[in-house]
Amino acid sequence: MRLTLRRGLLILAALAGGGLLFAWSGLFNVAASGGHWPITDWFLHWVMRSSVRTQALGIEVPELNEPAMVQRGAGHFAAGCAPCHGAPGQPQSAVVTAMTPPPPALAERIAAWQPNQLFWIVRHGIKYTGMPAWPATGRDDEVWAVVAFLLRLPELDDGTYRRLAFGDGATAHPLPPDTATLERLLPRCNACHGPGRAPATAPALAGQSGPYLAATLAAYAERRRGSGIMQLAADGLTPAAIAELAAYYAGSQAGSPPAAGTDLALLPEGEQIARRGVPASGVPACASCHDAVARYPAYPALAGQTAAYLAGQLALFQSGARGGTAYSHIMAMIASRLDDAQIAAVSAYYASQPPRQRAAALP
Amino acid sequence: MGGTGAERRRAGWRLAWPAGLALAACSGSQSALDPAGSEAERVAQLFWVMLIGTGVIWSLVIGAAVYAARVRPGPHDPAISRRLIHWGGIGLPVLALTALLAYGLQLMPELRAAGDGLKIEVSGEQWWWRVRYQTADGRSIVSANEIRLPAGERVELTLASPDVIHSLWIPNLAGKVDMIPGRVNRLVLEPTRTGNFRGVCAEFCGASHALMAFAVVVVTRPEFEQWLSQEAAAATGASSAELRRGAVLFEQVGCGGCHAIRGTAAAGTIGPDLTHLASRRTLAAGILPNEPAALRRWIAAADTIKPGVRMPSFGMLPAADLDAIVAYLASLE
Amino acid sequence: MTASADDAALDQARQQAQAARLRQVWATPGGWRYWSAVNNSEVGLWYTATAFVFLLFAGLLGLLIRVQLAVPDNDVLSAELYNQVFTLHGTVMMFLFAVPVFEAFSILILPEMLAARDLPFPRLSAFGYWCFLIGGLFVCGSIFFNAAPDGGWFMYPPLTTDLEQSGIGADIWLLGLSFIEVASIAAAVELIVGVLKCRPPGMRINLIPLYGWYVLVVAGMILFAFPPLIAGDILFELERLLDWPFFDPARGGDPLLWQHLFWIFGHPEVYIVFLPAIALLAMIIPTFAQTPIFGYSWIVLAAVGTGFLSFGLWVHHMYTTGLPAISLGFFSAASVAVAIPTGVQIFVFIATLLVGRATFSVPMLFACGALAIFTLGGLTGVMVALAPFDWQAHDSYFIVAHLHHTLIGGVLFPIIAGIYYFYPFITGRKLSDRLGRWAFWLMFVGFNISFVPMHFTGLRGMPRRIFTYPSGLGWDWLNLVSTIGAFILAAGILVLVLDVLRPKGRQPYVQRNPWRAGTLEWLTEMPGEDWGVRSVPIITSRYPLWDQPDLMRQVDEGRFYLADAEEGRRETLVTSVLDAEPMQCLRVPGNTFLTMAAAGLTGAVFIFATFHWWLATAVSAVLALVAIVAWLWTGTAIIPEKPSKPVGRGLELPLYASGPDSVGWWAMFITMLGDMAAFASLVFGYFFYWTIRPDFPPGPDAGPGVAWPFLALSLILAAWALTLAARRWNRQGLSQNLQLALPLAALLALAGTAALLAGPWQAGLQPQAAVYPATVWLLAGWTACHVVIGAIMQLYGLARSLAHRLTPAHDIDIRNIALYWHFTALTAVVTVAVLALFPKVA
Amino acid sequence: MAAERALQTAGGLWTLIVSPTVWAVHFTLCYAVAAVYCAKAGGGQAADLLPVRAWIAAVTVAALAIILWSGHRALRQWSAGAVDPPHDAATLADRRRFFGLATLLLAGLSCVATIYVALPALFIGDCR
Q1: Last residue of some domain: A197, A228, A251?
Q2: Among A232, B285, C108, C456, which residue has the least CB neighbours within 10 Å?
Q3: ipTM value of the model?
Q4: Which of C373, C382, C468, C478 is best to mutate for the B interface (most B CBs within 10 A)?
Q5: Stretch B150-172: mean pLDDT, rounded?
């Protein structure tokens, strides 16, 4: 019998119909209890590894050796990844090991992957497994922080891991009375924002206004500001808890100025932009909002943050991924008028400025 | 000059008389057919002359065609046709066009003659107008979105643009001249009567090209002097607690990063100078009436009123703060 | 049975056998292979139909504009969408309807008017059509993705070079339209050669139908008008893509250069779309007056004169840019002068009607409507030719009114007259007379209601391109009236579309030559045969069907030339330029999908480039090159199986011709004239910057130096000389010398390219830094591209020689390559002189 | 050789466009010189155009001379109008007469257009 186009199509149609019939009959068993057949397991992993290998081609790997980055990744790992994958000194629970496929314990698996492949997995997740995609789009900087940590993971012992992930647990400021909520929440926040950690690991919160901090936390909680890390942290915070946290950090002492290492050559241009703006391209002076004599409470202070953080935020504004409070559109508009050199300069300038306490409230 | 201008205008209107009904539709604050400047008058006159000529020629041509095709469609003597081509196609057009070309050419140097002394720099920006008056004694006075002119004088406008091409057009006073980045153009205006007119941007300049207009106020020389000295002065201080609160908020919210109010710390040069905002006829480059409600709407939702505008909207400010800022700005006479 | 009756029967049998062979040779393929057709009757029909679809699309966009402007402060469309809509309306009307429809119509009817079987390069027509379709769909489709261009159809920078304010729409506009422009130029080359070389024997140049004269003039104008825009597009895209600052004043560029280049294209373009429409009237009016055109020479004067004068008008679109009055004066003068030949044409038509006996019908109705509307548009054109008046009218609704009067009166109405006139020619059936009258009156009345008030709207201060306006400025009712009129106009077009599309299967075919016309296209049978004309007649009159009795019967009986297709090849006659003496029996290539593939791949290059998918772009470019070379290899310069053949009436004609006797040589020559026009535009850019910038060039030693450019020039000239030597050796029978010379020449050419680019490279010129280095790189790059293409051609010639497709007697390829190299050598000389020497004297 | 022959046979076409080409060259020379003068010469907007006006006068005279010469030749080729149009016979003579007439008409048009282009120099005296 000759295979004509017509016959070929008929055969294909019959196959498709048979497949549909089989699926409809319910004879296929979707139970997780039995696990995969070894051949299925091998095939799925082979597909997964091939897919990751190809899809990760062309992803450029940034510098991943920065301690602040590793700490930032560690903090998120403890909150977001360890519950399934376990961590040094924290074995996987019985519940997660009953998944099909079970999430792997990561320490021994890391070496099998290149950094760009790890990035791709953390960023996109993996279909038909429990591995989720990164919850916020446009936040590759956070994904890279997790990758930076993962690369260190195989060599970590219990204590080092805990120090990386949680810091020393110190609080920045004497707690007010009636502090049940704060006592519960602060260790999590301070893991990144606490003394000795901010502003390197995460932005310094001390010295910001209460309304700004509250609005920002609310923006994370309501997904108006994208961040895989902070969305997880802000999830489920009640308005009262947000208000307490905001008041606590607004009242805390500003931390030490950021470490040295800023490019001094950039400072004059940065100061010019901060104080005079770039009128030709429609960029107003940063100082007109961020350093006003009595800053409007909705605006953040910039002095005392790291240059990397400031430049990163401006880049997020430019790409449209930043989001934030009801005022963030102002900054998005201004950031779009800055070029890369100007961003570097003005970020370096503010990183070099000592954090300033808020002046008195409005008349 | 003004007197002769008025005479010319009357002459123009006499010429226009046959156009009859069209006249009734010509008055307006943004109409080239209701001239209030010597350039516009001469061009309007040229137009009416050409309109009459056009009417006559069109009727003759179409009359001939209808005659040949419908009225008497039979064969005619070829000699008539030959004469038709020689005279209708060549002779008369060459005569008429030569006369018209000479008319047009002799107007050009006249319309581009130099000014009398007062100079105004106008810069078209997306989507508003920066205006700077250069007085004879060397002072430079910044304003925006409104041009005031003394009647009967030839004022030279210097036209520039920092962003894209705009074109300044005040139909009642004169034709338009483009504002081209990297170039400086000149336009001389000679208003012949006082009044309020409207100017617009005539060259497509982006999303809100349609929303880039300005007010033109032609006043007498003494009135102009008085206005200019008032415009040169710094803003009057806020006189009440609420106004003072508005002034402080204006600074705290960061308005001063873009706008200047002379006499205060606000010295931004990115947006329009607001020193005497309340004394202007319009808001937001000629598209809103200058009243507090409109001002509040503008500050709260600039981007919906003028798509793509470079000013962020401040609708998220607490109502009380917004009101205080509006009240303060509305006090800047 | 007498002997003569036997003869007659034999004769009839012979005729039927001939007809059967012809029918088979020229048959349009069926099924999906239908789309591989390259015959002018198929391609012309697709082309025309596609152009009309674009017209309807742009018309809908126009209605959207009128809906938005019907009342003040309207918000049916957002500002963003409105800006896309009006930009696309203008762009599609001009680039996808007005210009292509002329080429489409000409491809469809010109061969029949000249009693030719086909145009000389049918595959080129097909290639042009597919390019047009792909590019057009790409540009039109953008609006459905909110990605349409939104800077107005003339795309003034710096608004459109600002990446923030103009998205991908600007790239779609630039690349999509550049692609279509290339197709237009291809069609122009084809039409020029068609008119000059493919006329029937005896049709001396004083006898060609007036449409032929117009085609010649208009195609010539395309050749010189489109290249400046292509040059402008190159500058524009280099600025958008690579940040070369041609229009950025901060780095020495100037936005006005774009305006110059655009309008050097843009104003002739107005006449490019208007003259063919007048040409249709010049065919229609004599038919309905039943008399030859009165004043043939006058029409020729008008066409040629307009063609020239239209190149001296471009600055009248720039009267308000602040140029010195004296400059404006020159252009004002030329703008006024062009009214004379335009007027002559109108009076010739009236004179013809006077001499003849006019019968009235739907085509005449539209012709008269066209006259009424266009005359007003022409008169307002004279008004705006005067700079002082234009200062008021420019960019206002007065201009909108003026340009729609000229374009609708001067293009759309004549074309609709042409549709009614030529519909039987295409389908064998007539359109409805009654619906035609409805369509006319709706369109005519609707047009006037819509556009006459706009003159006043404009003079009362309404600028064009505004998406909204406040009430109380005296524009409200004028705009409402215009909108109502626009819908009446649209209703008229709807009637026309319904009439065209309504099934006519039961309607009988009309008799042949239904309008009793005098020109050759009406020889066509009803319904038409694919061969076009049964035999190619000898012509002794401007109106052969009137003046040559019995012509139709003799043609049908195959009494003239090429009545047969013995070898089963598609053939047409090539005649001499002035006196149409038969010179060659040209074999034209048949149906193929290669042209569609080549167009698709070329389109892919442009489309992928728009989205910056560089890998896909590069792959498509290579594949496109392969497709084009395959097409050339298999479809051109084919060596016939015998040197000559009898074409009938005892005439023996050669089957192969090279050099100036061949159509391919003329096509290359004409193409290179267009190429030179583009190059001249780039050189104009160089001197334009020199005029306006004191620091251009920055100093006598600022450029690429003298040594490298002159080394490059010597290498390139050596490659040129070797090519010429190869041509000579080949003619002398020394094929092996050619096979040595050509690869050597290609090597020299590539070395020359390297040396040419080494100059600016060694001098460290940064094209992003300022306009001077950018311009130097541009000129060097342009020339380098030409030399590299020349090297590819030399290698192609070598391959042809090795494959014995290029022999001493059959040397089309090497002669065309040599011709290309003449122009390339000239380009190199000018480039080196400008780059190396001018800074020394500036 | 073939190229030469082609040029000769196309001769009528080339002579046809002599006068409009002269117009185009004249136009370009007037425009380019005025534009470069106003852009490069000192004095800016008020720069006196006298040298440019003299130049325009000179090129206009030269252009008109060539156009008139072309027209005169065309007149002869047309047989000085001895035979009336339409010159539509399929003969060499009528083809020549047709070209003569068309060339003559174009010379006339070019003459008017050239004078028009020179007119601005009469009215405009500076670079404003």
Answers
A1: A251
A2: A232
A3: 0.90
A4: C382
A5: 95
